[in-house]
Amino acid sequence: MSEIKDLLKRIRELEIKTKGLVDGMMAGSYKSKIRGRGIEFSEVREYVLGDDIRHIDWNVTARTNKLHVKEFVEERDLRVYVMFDYSASNEFGFMKSKKSIGHEVAASIIFSAMKNNDNVGLGIFTNKLEHFVPARKGRKHSLSLLRTLLAYKPKSAQTDIESSLLQLHHILGQHSVVFIISDYISPNFLRPLKFLKNRHDVILVNLSDIRESELPDIGYTMLEDIESGEQLMVNTSDESFRNAFTKNSLESHEKIKNDIKKLKVEMVNVSEQIPFDTALRQFFNQRMRR
Questions:
Q1: Same-domain status, 168 and 130
Q2: Domain that holds residue 61
Q3: Pairing assessment for the beta strands 220-224 and 231-235 based on DSSP bridges
Q4: Closest CA to 86 of 155, 135, 145, 142
Q5: Is the predicted pLDDT of residue 10 greater than 80, yes or no?
Q6: pLDDT at res. 38
Q7: Together in a domain, 124 and 81
Q8: Are 56 and 122 within one domain?
């Protein structure tokens, strides 16, 4: 019972924390810039010069002896998916874990979709797509997604973004907006990302922590790969080692960003140093200006 109370409390805290962003810039720009691309039938009306003859409704025309055309409007039934990386590397964090920051981002997206009356779904992945919930509307459904996300216990500590995105590509049919929240440490995911991007509006949310690129001077210490368990003793008082560590980390992240940019996929960077609300506001502001 106490676990359920704690979970409900966390959901309520997330709703309060993200409310300003959802009610403000994110709601407006989200609705105006990220909409469904399909069309749906609206009504039949009399033909006027310039109408597309392919839209003539011949049944109504035959009954009335006047040309009538079908009118269509842009489909507003958008599907939004939050894909969340639950591998062990996202447990890392100096002041706050990357996973906790990711929860705040996910809550903002879910509540914004709910406010816009859009369908929202959830995918949780590690070295494979472990859990998937199809997109639906409504507050009850949205809160259920958050409960699932916050209480989820991953089956694997490993990351394989490539395999997870390939599975997602085969599952998603209708055009959707897909937010992928991860630290993108797993390599070789560009091919499935390209597949997804060709059919869907894909937005990457990159979770990072300052200690992944900057080591403090604390003498000899043990570094451990949280996913593989591999350990390595290093001397952090060695300035050349610290500089090399930072250089390698920054170069690796820069390569990923450049590769993603070549695919024309957008990425939002979020960390303790770049608060999620600031990063998302800037991102949606830029989208509105394009």
A1: yes
A2: 39-74
A3: antiparallel
A4: 155
A5: no
A6: 47
A7: yes
A8: no
